[in-house]
């Protein structure tokens, strides 16, 4: 091979490299500046982790259950409202709290219920088959926090027992109005 061809070949290689670098640079530019503005699920989870204690995160975001007879609100008889620990939506009133003997704070009705109509409350019900039995999960309508479950063995007149984890709640004294 003639020695004089070498510089030309090197020149071609450099040109090729430069065009490759330029095109990859062009390719990156729109992606870097073109975020959609929506948060990924991972980002949201990280934010909850930052703002909640590990126990609160485990129960509300990973559908955990606090150990029975451990919750700080189990025996709370003060008058007031129980709010969602994640988003501060009012969920339950002390008026409908009762001692079910199960080891978790229990309520016979959701705050804002009219008759049997829960459409103006901040909770949602969702079927839960995770433990082998069919239960009804109770979730915060506003932020999707797992709160507990509802059973149909509560006191009259509602006949319902909302079995709620203390760590998913934040109690504030007063009427909540
Ligand atoms: Zn909430």
TrEMBL record:
Gene3D superfamilies: Peptide methionine sulfoxide reductase (2.170.150.20)
Coiled-coil blocks: none
Cofactor(s), by name: Zn(2+)
BP GO terms, sorted: protein repair; response to oxidative stress
Cofactor, free-text remark: Binds 1 zinc ion per subunit.
Catalysed reactions, semicolon-separated: L-methionyl-[protein] + [thioredoxin]-disulfide + H2O = L-methionyl-(R)-S-oxide-[protein] + [thioredoxin]-dithiol; [thioredoxin]-disulfide + L-methionine + H2O = L-methionine (R)-S-oxide + [thioredoxin]-dithiol
Task performed by this protein: Methionine-sulfoxide reductase that specifically reduces methionine (R)-sulfoxide back to methionine. While in many cases methionine oxidation is the result of random oxidation following oxidative stress, methionine oxidation is also a post-translational modification that takes place on specific residues.
Protein name: Peptide-methionine (R)-S-oxide reductase
Organism the protein comes from: Buteo japonicus
């Amino acid at each position: 091979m003639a020695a004089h061809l070498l510089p030309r070949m090197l020149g071609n290689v450099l040109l090729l490299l430069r065009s490759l670098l330029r095109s990859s640079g062009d390719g990156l530019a729109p992606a870097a500046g073109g975020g959609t503005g929506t948060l990924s699920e991972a980002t949201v989870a990280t934010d909850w982790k930052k703002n909640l204690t590990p126990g609160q995160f485990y129960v509300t975001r990973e559908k955990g259950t606090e150990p029975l007879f451990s919750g700080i609100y189990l025996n709370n008889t003060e008058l007031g409202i129980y709010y969602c620990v994640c988003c501060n939506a009012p969920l339950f009133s002390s008026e409908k709290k009762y001692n079910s003997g199960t080891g978790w704070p229990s309520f016979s009705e959701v705050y804002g219920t009219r008759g049997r109509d829960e459409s103006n409350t901040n909770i949602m019900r969702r079927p839960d088959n995770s433990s082998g039995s069919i239960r009804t999960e109770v979730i915060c309508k506003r932020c999707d926090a797992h709160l507990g479950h509802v059973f149909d063995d509560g006191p009259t007149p509602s006949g319902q027992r909302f079995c709620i984890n203390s760590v998913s709640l934040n109690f504030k004294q007063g009427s909540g109005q």
